[in-house]
Design goal:
Radius of gyration: 17 Å
Largest sheet: 4 strands, mixed
Strand content: 35-45%
Protein name: Glyoxalase
CATH superfamily: 2,3-Dihydroxybiphenyl 1,2-Dioxygenase, domain 1
Order of helices and strands: EHEEEEHEEE
Shape: globular
Pfam families: Glyoxalase (PF00903)
Number of domains: 1
Organism: Streptomyces lydicus
């Protein structure tokens, strides 16, 4: 077997609409409704399904708990713009920008918390040095 990507993950949350508002307003991740009124957040080729704490769909994690996730999301704007946007939204920054290592190489990350206390890392991939041409 060879895993090729992440389709979706599930966040158990205390208040789905509060979570939807935060992720859309602060992180620019649009919500969708699917199935029988289920809510999710979509970005790129992935999504975050939202489960209401106490009403999780089966099967679910052994101990689904709001605030137990640690997510790293990749952005395509400079960290300075990320910081300015978070400030404008009134979202406190826990740490950053700081250097880290992502799945594809060096990244710069800023950390914050969502309404349930999940740790959210907003990262940007560092530009790769230009390769000089001898032609």
């Amino acid at each position: 077997m060879r895993i090729t990507g992440l389709d979706h993950l599930v966040l158990t949350v205390a208040d789905i609409e509060r979570t939807v508002d935060f992720y859309e307003r602060v992180l620019g991740i649009p919500p969708v409704t699917f199935g029988e009124g289920r809510r999710a957040l979509t970005f790129g080729t992935s999504k975050i399904n939202l489960h209401q704490a106490g009403s999780e769909l089966l099967p679910h994690a052994t101990h689904p708990t709001p605030g137990s996730a640690d997510l790293c999301l990749v952005a395509d704007i400079p960290q300075e713009q990320i910081l300015a946007h978070l400030t404008a939204c009134g979202v406190p920054v826990l740490e950053g920008p700081v250097p880290r290592t992502g799945a594809q190489g060096p990244i710069t990350s800023t950390y914050l918390r969502d309404p349930d206390g999940n740790l959210i890392e907003i990262s940007t991939y560092n530009p790769r040095p230009a390769v000089e041409s001898n032609s």
